[in-house]
Amino acid sequence: MPDANDLIKKFSELKTLPHVAIKVAQLSSDDNSTMQDFEEIIKLDPVLVTRLLRLVNSPYFGLVQKIESISKAVVFTGMKQLRNLVAVEALRNMFKGDDEEFSARKLWLHSATVAILAEMIAKRIFGQDGEDVFLAGIIHDIGLIVENQVAGEELRAACKAFRAGEGNLIDCERAMLGTDHAEVGYLLAKDWGLPPEVLSSIRSHHLSGQKKSLSSVGSILQLAEFMAAKMKYWPIPGPLEPLPADLARHVKNMMANYKIIIRDLPGEMAKAKELYEADAD
Amino acid sequence: MSGEPTFESIFEDLLDSGEQLRPFLVVVESVLPEAALALQDAAGSLFFGGRPLSLSLAERERLVAGARMRPDFVSGRAEDGSCCYARLIPNLNAVLLFAFAGGKEDLLLLPGGSTLLANTLALALLRQEQEILVADKEQALKQIGILKQQHGKLIEDNYRQYRLNQEREKEYAKKLESEIARQTAELREANARLEEISRLKSDFLANMSHELRTPMNAIIGFTELLSETRLDSEQAEYTKTIAQSAASLLALINDILDLAKIESGKLELEHIPFDLGEVVQSICAMFRIPAREKGVAIDCAIGEGVPGRVLGDSVRLRQVLVNLVGNAVKFTDRGRIDILVEMEGGATARPLCRFSVRDTGIGIPADRREAIFDKFTQADGSTTRKYGGTGLGLAICLQLVSLMGGRLVVESEVGKGSTFSFLLPVEAAAAVPVESCAPPMGTAPHPARGGEILLVEDNVVNQRLATILIQREGYQVEVAGDGVEALACLQGRAYDLVLMDVQMPNMDGMTATRKIREIEANPELRQEYAGLRDRKRPQIVIGLTAHARKEDEKACYEAGMDGFLSKPIIKAKLLKLLAEMLP
Asked: In what order do the strands lie in the sheet containing B409-413?
């Protein structure tokens, strides 16, 4: 039975992650990098340049002057937002394909929803910048994409077992594939040089038993994942894991706040769609 | 998906209905602190406020059913007899029941009572709404806080990057600097190497010229001697040709030597007083005959204010002017040549003097005007064939003039003529009473008085040449092959004069001369030398050298020589010197 590293090895033979994405992720966690370094990388990818300029010129930034140079745009977005933009751009193209047992397209919608929700929670409830949890949300299910690419049949068997109630998804995956998408995603993201907290949140996003601080990336990711799944933004139909008790208690105490987040989510999603996805056509 | 997801649809598992209803009860209680409250949800579950509401089951069911029927208050009686009211709260889907302790009167029957109750309830609902607004506001504040934070971070980050960039730039500049320093050092070294090579080349040329001059010496000397023998006309013609060719070859060698000297920086200019007018006039006189032969007039004019005696190097100035005038004569077939000397720029601190040589000759095309100053180049390749010349003259003039602090320029028009001119700073010398120590050149030496001369020379050809020259003038000559032989000769007998070649094997002329002076200074040693023993005055020693450089001359005097002759030996000069030394 293959293990996670085997899967990743096969995956990278099949489909290389965009060099730009990896490079930008590494740069953004390097204290010695400068905007010039980012510019050098980004200008190699015209699509990315277009998106970056659109992002920085969107009402979200509310700039009076139109920004037309990459370096200026990078200055306004900051490194982490830039990293997220690149990650979205790189990953979206991998989440393609659709079938009854497993829909990568729906998974993308799920990931995007989780990312946006997680960012909202981080910002509005915990007063954090939300850039790391956004990235965690976008990436947390990349393991499923890897499995789908290199072990599609086994993954589908696992999904089927999960739907039939033969255990949670992680256990079903382990039974069929010898590993699970949280582990695979974690190992893959490690190669990208992402922050440790993001890595561990990817690894543990299905582990409800693990004790985490409420404001940690892991907890926020888990909560956002639960909410998104409840909204049916979930590609693999099957029984939902319950929310960990401490998170449930937290939600009960902050009911008004979460009501507002749910109320505002459609607006935020529309905004994100405009920022990250809108194409020129 | 049916409709937008709500908090309730998402977190339904978390919530029993009481969890939703209880907060509302709390709010109503805050508005109606004395009222006894209850809420009944759609499933019939009942939730009570802080004060107990005692209501019979039948009455409660009636009130709830009534309230669900129409969107208004319904009144009834509690068990304690006070009036009880019920009203549906639509967004909770629950009926609120409440009574005021002791309030027996039905407020709904009073004017405005219904409105009062409705307002009270609206207030409670508003308060609950407000809770959301407060949370909303808090969230907005938090987001603003984050934006501020992010903004601060951006600024910080930009500053950090600014610093980083600055450091990188500094490093780059440092690297650049050291790179430049390295390259400069390399260039300097290369330059030094080139200079060294150039110097070596010049040295080589100087040495070569010297080697060439020695046989030239013989050729010229013997040709001169040959021409004085009895020759038929054909032989005389051949001899003349040899003499002319030798003379032009010597001129070329001299030019090369000059150029080599200038280029190796070994040419030193003199700074002694001389008569400027005399120099110019003598040049004019020198070319008068060749010019007249071509039918060209030649004249010189010295402008007002030009000092008579100036400080400088008359030899080099003469060389330049002779070259320019020689060229003018060469390239002019009719018209005139003028040598002009005039002051320029008025009475400035450093008076400048313009020297011009103007001709009405063939002129120089504009595109060749720079090339004529190059070595071995003339205005036209055919010029050499037609007019001859080494092609070094102007190059030497250019160098000499710049060495003297001026710049040689040319103005010319093809067919009309050319003017070569240069400006030199002049320094007037104090007028000194004319000493007639140096008779003007060209004056015939007076007839020889006779005397005994020791010729020290290693080259056999030169030995013979000099011997013949000297003997012809009535002197007696004895020959020594080197310094050692010369000393041996002096041991045997006395001579009126020693002609001492400088470069010789075994013992060179310098050493031999120093030896002679040593012996003269030492009375004991002197006794061993018959030639030096009885002299009242020191032995006269004249140096002979092929190196015509200043430092060679200086070295001769330093070694104790009384005079100096450069080779090849020019008959006139030799005779003049002998006449002076042996009056």
From this structure: B296-302, B335-344, B352-359, B417-425, B409-413
